[in-house]
Design brief:
Blueprint (H helix, E strand, L loop, with lengths): L1 E5 L3 H13 L3 E5 L2 H8 L6 E4 L8 H10 L5 E6 L4 H9 L4 E4 L4 H16 L5 E4 L2 E4 L4 E4 L2 E3 L3 H12 L5 E2 H8 L10 H13 L6 E6 L3 E7 L1
Parallel strand pairs: 1-2, 1-3, 3-4, 4-5
Antiparallel strand pairs: 6-7, 7-8, 8-9, 10-12, 11-12
Helix pairs in contact: 2-3, 6-8
């Protein structure tokens, strides 16, 4: 369950990230319209929470671009622009929902849940890498048909690696995605949890999946 928040106001972005992460979502933050369009175009997000007035590109332009690219992520406009004409423009450009600021977080969370239910049936449910299966809806993991029990953080880390299979992820990227707040960027938290995962995913297997890339970080891929 992945959410992209495109918001240039740092404090609000942090509040949204922490609140959504606490509700069980994996949350990425884009700080401007250009970054939001680039990240959203990957199609990896179930829901995109999108501000209208952004530096670089407006939220309307971002939304139009995503729809032009046939990105199926649900888009919730979250903006201070509150006139009827504003709402019509937002929905006409391809947004699925429209919330005005100031807002109550429980309502936003309910709207995110609603959009997630609508989109999850059309999105890839199970990610497969070699004989590893990650069910992103049931949050279940199997390797070679055998169920593997993971803690919540271990699962979040593995899901992030699986969504980005074959791509090298830096420690900072992993920290920001799996531990969205309150972490020490110089700690060995990522390395410790990677070791936990390797014991459960790779130990005793002919094919290892979790690999260290010297310097940058880690990647998930099939490699003997």
């Amino acid at each position: 369950m992945r959410v992209l928040v495109v918001e240039d106001e740092p404090r609000l972005a942090q509040v949204l990230q922490e609140g959504l992460a606490e509700a069980g979502y994996m949350v990425d933050i884009a700080r401007d319209g250009l970054e939001g369009a680039s990240m959203g175009a990957t199609g990896q997000y179930d829901v995109i929470v999108l501000d209208w007035m952004l530096p670089g590109r407006s939220g309307l332009d971002v939304c139009r671009d995503l729809r032009h690219r046939s990105v199926g992520s649900a888009v919730i406009m979250l903006t201070a622009r509150d006139t009827l004409n504003d709402k019509v423009q937002g929905l006409d450009c391809g947004a699925d929902d429209y919330i005005t600021k100031p807002f109550e977080f429980p309502e936003l969370l309910a709207r995110v849940r609603s959009q997630f239910r609508r989109t999850q049936s059309s999105r890839r449910r199970v990610i497969t890498v070699a004989d590893l299966e990650v069910d992103t809806v049931a949050r279940e993991v199997r390797r070679g048909g055998q169920a593997i029990q993971l803690t919540s953080k271990e699962y979040s880390l593995l899901e992030y690696l699986a969504y980005n299979a074959g791509r090298v992820l830096t420690r900072d990227q992993i920290l920001c995605h799996v531990w969205p707040s309150g972490y020490d960027g110089f700690s060995n938290t990522v390395d410790v949890f990677i070791r936990y995962l390797r014991r459960k995913i790779d130990d005793g297997r002919t094919t290892t999946l979790i690999h260290t890339v010297i310097g940058p970080g880690y990647t998930l891929r099939a490699q003997r």
